[in-house]
From TrEMBL:
Record lineage: Bacteria, Pseudomonadati, Pseudomonadota, Betaproteobacteria, Burkholderiales
Organism per entry: Bordetella petrii (strain ATCC BAA-461 / DSM 12804 / CCUG 43448 / CIP 107267 / Se-1111R)
Lineage: superkingdom: Bacteria
InterPro entries: ArsR-like_HTH, HTH_ArsR_DNA-bd_dom, Metal_resp_trans_reg, WH-like_DNA-bd_sf, WH_DNA-bd_sf
Assigned keywords, A-Z: DNA-binding, Transcription, Transcription regulation
Keyword Transcription regulation attached: yes
Domain HTH arsR-type: 34-131
GO molecular function, one term: DNA binding
Designated name of the protein: Transcriptional regulator
Length: 143
């Protein structure tokens, strides 16, 4: 894989950012996705994320990283009733997007980053007929 940096009429820095973004996208495609998701798993994951509260829970766990969060911290952060949160965590766990581990008396929930990357890889596999896709200018800030 070769990184080609080109200048755009808007300026060299924007061209460099676009080239790097395109390169990183292609690199992620090649390294993260190994065909480990199938259609049924994808539908299950997308169904779980298709609910506002579950999406918020999942995003909070992604932000928390590998440390994860306890249900009480999640409930407080998201202002969600604990029984409601428990239901949503169960759905995300069944979809394979979240893992749970007992640490002493606490349950620690974590986003399953391998599954998340697998989902993204499945959705974008063979994008642009297998070529490198051009990153939309609207997806970048002007900073």
């Amino acid at each position: 894989m070769v990184l080609t940096i080109c200048a755009t009429p808007q300026g060299t820095l924007r061209g460099i950012r676009r080239s790097i973004s395109t390169f990183l996208y292609a690199l992620i495609q090649q390294t993260l996705y190994h065909g480990n998701m199938n259609e049924a798993q994808t539908v299950s994951a997308l169904s779980a994320l298709a609910h506002t509260q579950r999406l918020r829970v999942f995003r909070a766990l992604v932000i928390a990283g590998l440390e994860g969060l306890t249900p009480s911290v999640l409930a407080e952060q998201l202002a969600v009733a604990r029984n409601t949160l428990s239901f949503h965590l169960k759905e995300l766990t069944h979809a394979g997007l979240v893992t749970v581990e007992q640490q002493g008396r606490n349950l620690i929930y974590r986003a399953d980053f391998a599954q998340m990357n697998g989902l993204l890889g499945y959705l974008t596999e063979h994008c642009c007929q297998g070529g490198v896709c051009e990153v939309s200018e609207s997806s970048h800030c002007d900073c």
